[in-house]
């Protein structure tokens, strides 16, 4: 499978497993899962056929491990804007986590902190490099340092997705360190 096709399939999956399942006529269960056969048939009806081998390759080769295949079902690891409960347990985070963004959002973040916006959670990275890559998708990256240890001690909950992304309901400005 060539790289362009892999990216197209991955983006198609993200759109329909995280944000708009109804657009192709699928329904995610409470945990965000859908039967692989149901997804493949719906994609074909929608004019975007995906071979089972392509789907398996995208899931296995995706550098961010965005999707999970299990027992003939598939779901996105995190990042949903549709109601799902991933069933992730509350987990104690490392002392420091990171968030990648761009400069144009800093004023709002300084005032309001990190909010999930149209998703269920704020996404945090365990390392600065990953946060830099995330922020770099929208321009020149700015990496914020999150005092996750202090947040946890203050009663905030964290969850760890299957692909290593840390999830929090929000991050107040008091727990953020800004560059410069």
UniProtKB/TrEMBL annotation:
<dbReference type="Pfam" id="PF01885">
    <property type="entry name" value="PTS_2-RNA"/>
</dbReference>
<comment type="similarity">
    <text>Belongs to the KptA/TPT1 family.</text>
</comment>
<dbReference type="InterPro" id="IPR002745">
    <property type="entry name" value="Ptrans_KptA/Tpt1"/>
</dbReference>
<dbReference type="GO" id="GO:0016740">
    <property type="term" value="F:transferase activity"/>
</dbReference>
<protein>
    <recommendedName>
        <fullName>Probable RNA 2'-phosphotransferase</fullName>
        <ecNumber>2.7.1.-</ecNumber>
    </recommendedName>
</protein>
<dbReference type="InterPro" id="IPR022928">
    <property type="entry name" value="RNA_2'-PTrans_KptA"/>
</dbReference>
<dbReference type="InterPro" id="IPR042080">
    <property type="entry name" value="RNA_2'-PTrans_N"/>
</dbReference>
<keyword id="KW-0520">NAD</keyword>
<comment type="function">
    <text>Removes the 2'-phosphate from RNA via an intermediate in which the phosphate is ADP-ribosylated by NAD followed by a presumed transesterification to release the RNA and generate ADP-ribose 1''-2''-cyclic phosphate (APPR&gt;P). May function as an ADP-ribosylase.</text>
</comment>
<dbReference type="InterPro" id="IPR042081">
    <property type="entry name" value="RNA_2'-PTrans_C"/>
</dbReference>
<keyword id="KW-0808">Transferase</keyword>
């Amino acid at each position: 499978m060539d790289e362009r096709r892999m990216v197209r399939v991955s983006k198609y999956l993200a759109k329909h497993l995280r944000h708009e399942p109804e657009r192709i006529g699928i329904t995610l269960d409470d945990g965000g899962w859908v039967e692989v056969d149901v997804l493949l048939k719906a994609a074909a009806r929608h004019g975007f056929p995906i071979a089972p081998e392509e789907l398996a390759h995208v899931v296995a080769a995706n550098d961010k491990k965005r999707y999970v295949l299990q027992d003939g079902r598939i779901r996105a690891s995190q990042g949903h804007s549709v109601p799902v409960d991933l069933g992730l347990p509350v987990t104690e985070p490392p002392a420091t986590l990171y968030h990648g963004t761009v400069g144009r959002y800093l004023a709002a973040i300084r005032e309001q902190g990190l909010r999930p916006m149209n998703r269920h959670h704020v996404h945090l990275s365990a390392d600065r490099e990953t946060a830099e890559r995330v922020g770099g998708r929208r321009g020149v990256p700015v990496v914020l340092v999150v005092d996750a240890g202090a947040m946890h001690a203050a009663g905030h909950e964290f969850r760890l997705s299957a692909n290593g992304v840390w999830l929090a309901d929000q991050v107040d400005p008091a727990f953020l360190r800004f560059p410069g």
